[in-house]
Specification:
Number of helices: 3
Largest sheet: 2 strands, antiparallel
Helix content: 40-55%
Length: about 70
């Protein structure tokens, strides 16, 4: 998965429950993976063909901040 840049969903799927957070690097990788597979993603997870929380993830990337899920 890593070789093909398809590993970006793993922290979101597997690690969020443990820590409740995602690093800015993990958020960047998530968006990269999403961009690769977005044509196959259910429309409820997209807004204007992008991840519906992309602006939140992008803010975390731009500020090098962790995302905290609660």
């Amino acid at each position: 998965f890593k070789r093909d840049a398809l590993d970006g969903f793993f922290p979101f799927i597997f690690d969020i429950g443990d820590s409740g957070s995602m690093s800015s690097g993990e958020a960047r990788r998530f968006l990269e993976t999403f961009d690769i597979v977005k044509d196959y993603i259910h429309h409820e997870l997209k807004y204007k063909d992008e991840f519906y929380l992309e602006f939140v993830f992008q803010e975390a990337i731009d500020t090098s901040s962790d995302l905290i899920f609660c």
